[in-house]
């Protein structure tokens, strides 16, 4: 697979890793590139299959360690409902919670950031004296492309 990935994005995460004093190993970088190369969320085993094309010795722990690192750094998001992964639209430029729109037909995922939605959730939690530690907001449905294909 030929990856046409914005090299500026790779440079951005490399710079963030240097600033944080963490190592972006070649395998971590490659897993990130594979995730970024698709609009669809990728499972760990799909990533492993792709990684094996360039690194035949790669094993599941290699991918899982890379995914853990990338999530810790805020470079990717886990799609909880499908146990898969997508790149973060801001690459942790700022701490945020995302709303994911997941197409059940083509599996494309769109990441949205809506501060008013998060504020409403926090306001509702506060009313009940509940402290939120994590948000997972995922909406499943059919994307515009798939809807258009259905009507044709």
UniProtKB/TrEMBL annotation:
DNA-binding as UniProt keyword: yes
Keyword rRNA-binding: no
Primary localization: cytoplasm
Keyword terms, alphabetized: Cytoplasm, DNA-binding, Iron, Metal-binding, Repressor, Transcription, Transcription regulation, Zinc
InterPro entries assigned: FUR, Fur_C, WH-like_DNA-bd_sf, WH_DNA-bd_sf
Family stated for the protein in its record: Belongs to the Fur family.
Subunit structure and binding partners: Homodimer.
Protein name, per record: Ferric uptake regulation protein
